Every structure is written in structure tokens, then in C-alpha cells.
Amino acid sequence: MNQAGAVTPPHLTTLPIRALTVDDLRHCADLSEDRGWLREEHKWGLLLTAGRGYGIDAPDGQGLAAGCVVTRYGPPGADPELAAIGMVLVADRYSRQGLGRYLMAYICDDVLKGVPLALHATPYGRPLYEELGFETTGRAEMLRGVFRPDGATPSTVPGSGSVRPATAEDIPGILRLDAEVFGADRTHLITRLPAFTDRLFVAEDSAGELTGYGAIWPNMDTHVVGPLVARDTASAQALVTALAATTERPLRTDVDVRHEGLLHWLKDRGLDSVFFNAVMTRDIPGLPGDWTRRWAPLTVAAG
User: Could you please report the per-residue DSSP string of 4-15?
Assistant: First the structure.
């Protein structure tokens, strides 16, 4: 005890780390808001069910001192082929006291030891991740704004092919395409898209073969475009155009900076650059799969 008789709280880096559940959703949203982020309860709900959350209860009894989510990818029942770490947050009153490093070291070296890892890092978090063995292997640009269509018909793809709303019968094809493009099995995430998103569209060629898919989902006052998978720029643009036609909210998305054509096109239609995230990986040279057909993630928090 101190001289006033109050109990001295335990050292932060000895506090227990526990699994988070959907019952912790409000505390996770509170933690986001505490750090100046949006509450994003809809996204937290997906991440806590499709992935696994880890957190540290605040010693003052006020919610969470820190938290993060881990989304594992690979065949069901097997060791993960890849895991994405996201939503790494420390309450402002406990910041700069080693709590983020403590939580991340536990996740990387205990929970996911030997598993290839990926994350999207802000400039603020990047130095810590580098110290933990992550390397920058790419960049993504966040865009936000009211989409201005150019008069293109949302249901057509220039050249050949079409875009249409997805049906239940499309899910197996979406799963096959996604595994091919992403480079790992994401069944537990993709099968949640019909319930999680407001719109899910597919692109197909003139023979009816599925060549891409895209979705928008509600996030506070915006609609997020993602995931976005397409065989070429024209198909990606057609999917975005069709999705944008279903909402009056501003759009938000994160695009791999190598897709310069799509980025320029989106900016010409009203979306502005917000900031850049570094794509970082550990124990793997870069994200697996085919980046040329992977245009935007569902959310950077899930890789």
C-alpha cells in the first residue's frame, strides 16, 4: 500500500491476458473510442466471432486496458496457414507503459508461435512491430468520399461480362475464387458475408464463369467497400460502381497501392486519400495468393 492506504495496482505487464468474446463487444468499442477511433461495433462483432479476441482487463475496473483480434486462415481443423492480427489498442491512460508490447509478444510468440503472421500498421505502431520481427512488404491507401458515377451501366463490365447480386448458389464459387486469390482457406469468414454485408455482388464472364466478387458493409456513417476481388481493373470498377449505386452514404475502402489505375479512378469519382497503412508480415515474405486480383480487403483488421 502507499502512504494513503490505497492498494497499488499490479505492474501492467504482469496482468493476465484473457480471451475476449462477443460479450466484450461494448468494452472493445469503448476501447476504440478511447483512442479516438470509431466505435465500429458491427465490425467488432464480426471479428470476435470469425476470429479470436485477446484482452487485458483494466486494473481500475473500467473496461479493457488493451485488446486485439486474431483471425486464423487455413483448412478447418488444421494448423493455421496464416494469421492476421488487428485492432491492437491500448487505453489512453495506460499508453506508453509497455502494455502493447506485452500483449503483442504474447500473441506472436505464445499463441501464434511458428505461424506466418500479417497485419496492417499505422506509422504509430510500425516501430513496435518491426522490433517484434515484422517487415514491411506492401502498402494500402485508405480512401473516403461520396462516389460520383461516370454514367457507366452498373450491371456491365467493359468488354464482356456482367455484375449482379450474389445468390446462395454463388457461395461455393466465391469460396473457391477467394481461396485461390487470397492463398488460404477463409471459409469461416466468407460464409459470414451474406449476413454481415448490406450488398454482395459477383462478376462473371460471358460464359457465366465467376471472375470476381465485392461487398459493402455499414460502418458508422459510411459504407466500406471490401472485400473486392476482380480479374482486372475494369471488373473492379464495375463492381464498385454497382455497389455504390445501392447506397447514399460515403464510401470507404483500402486499396493496394500497386493498383494505381483503380486508385486514380476512385479519386476522379470523389474519394479522397485519408492515410496509408503499411502491410507487414512475419515469417513469410509477403501476403500469399494473387495480389493482382486482390483489390481491397474486407477490413485491414482481418488482413
Answer: T-PPPPPPGGGS
